[in-house]
Specification:
518 residues; alpha/beta; 10 helices; 19 strands; 24% helix; 18% strand; globular
Length: 518
Amino acid sequence: MNLEGMRRYENDDIVDAVVIGTGAGGAPLLARLATAGAHVVALEAGRNWTPEEFPSDELAASGIYWLGERLSAGETPNAFGANNSGTGVGGSTLHWGAFCPRPDAHQFRLRSEFGVGVDWPFAYDELVPYLQRVEAFIGVSGPESYPWDVARRYPLPPVARNAPAQLLKRACDALGVRATDAPVAVASQNFAQDGAEERPACINCGACHQGCRIGAKASMDVTYLPLAVRAGAEIRPECVAYEFTYDASGEIVAVIYRDAAGLERRQRCRAVFLCAGAIETPRLLLHLGIANSSGQIGRNYMAHVATQVWGTFADETRPNKGYPSSLITEDFLRPADADFVGGYVAQSLGMVPVTWGQQVARARGLWGRPLVDYLQTYNHAAGIGINGDCLPQDGNYVELADETDAHGMRKARIHFTAGTNEVRMKRHAERLMTALWTEAGASDIWSANRYAHTIGTCRMGIDPAHAVVDGTGRSFDVPNLWVCDNSVFPSALAANPALTIMALGLRTAETFLREARA
């Protein structure tokens, strides 16, 4: 993004806040603080990109993925890198797929409704106004009428359905499953974003996960971050925070970081907002040894059940063309025949070829000539995928490994084993998706067992003995430390997390501003 002419603060200036991370949590928060007149500096570990640098090529786009080594453990070890982490000004939203259904109200009350997990410390209805503000600002495209929430309205009409979406819609109609155009943070028509330059309509290139060259996708580098910079915020790319300094009362007074040249810097501040994601946020806090009187930092790690089912069709599908996930059904957020807690949303899937080939090799165990032969069917493939609840378990957590990275910080080791609830959900979804593809006329149907997104690890709550931050994201232990990213989620929710994170960013920022004015 364009950082020319941006306001610059001196390290000796005492800014109102340092925001660590510029993704879905940090960017809206930064913009809200800056537009309210606060003096704010954002530190971003990744580099700054211009849209022209985003290639419609999977291999060439690897620079926007977080490829720093993370150690994966457990019986269902998670894949990282391109699967769920991004780097650069804009964070993971650079490679985010922009699929953004709202969370379901029932998922805020798992403990109350099912006796498992924990409830969120506030009701879903309190978050709705923030969700609406985010959707209006970034320009979410969606159907005129949403079957599961008829009062909901989206600012833009839906994106065009690609071939997998068309096939899935016919199958859903035949089996009595409600399905509609998916809510996606992609401009279906030219969009005059509030206070910013007009963003062009999607051109259906299908390379959403490789960064959007034209700015149709609502990543943070074309939405909230330009707003923040225009309002006076400073963004410092390639700056890695690794230490804080404190006053006698224990409040943070400065953030110590290494800049792009590898030099140590120190930015004085009145508050810190840690928005680095559910791996890097607990990693930094564990490294610092702070804000953990509850013992919950790194605990309660969750990953969405993200099972996929693929099939081969007689007609060409060209799965790399069009927006990848343009159809959704929420009929299975609470399935009547469920033998598990929670539920899932299902979506149509297109996919670019290298990613699809890697999926085939892992899920089907193909290699050599059998793999090469099967890949020839790519232009006839289509998929369905789910995003499903995950329950927190004691054995799923983030810890510090003995190995260190280039900055001398210990690497993260992530333990994850799918529980009985996740396995039952996966099996239910496989039966559904297989039935849908059978109805659609697919042959050679197969499934891929996978988990996506990183959630939990610094959860919010009411009781400081069992939570890291309160319901606004404020640390129970360090009064001027706030956390705002997917690490604060008490439950996984079945919706992709980005929209909820953005809404939390606005909510946290406005809580901070109210307290600062009091």
